[in-house]
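TL;DR need structure tokens for one chain.
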Amino acid sequence: MGIPHPIDVHVGKRLRLKRTILGMSQEAIGTAIGVTFQQVQKYERGVNRMGASRLYDFSKILGVPVSYFFEEYDAPAGHNPGMAENIAPAFEHEKMTSRETMEMMRAYYRIASPQARKRIFELVKTMADEPAES
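>> reply
TL;DR here they are.
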């Protein structure tokens, strides 16, 4: 088995991120589109590529446009579409997928009031811009 393609890895990470934010299990999303949770795991790791119809299915279940899966993708240096493509590490650590971040995002989206969410968002941005206390 070869190394996963960087785009497949990125799409899988975006799938995992949105699924986790929504609090869906791999089993639940798999059942919703007719695949096993093991298949969802493979998609999320980029081990198995998703066809266009599968991306469409996931986008409908997650309530996002298909383009969501490609947002924030930065092609590796020297990447030339259609040519021999560079391969990215399949399991690099990302802050966005840490348990703390996921719990924070789930809690944030459970806040019913859009005004309260906006104020919390502004507070966090302000705090992030302040220098650390010694």
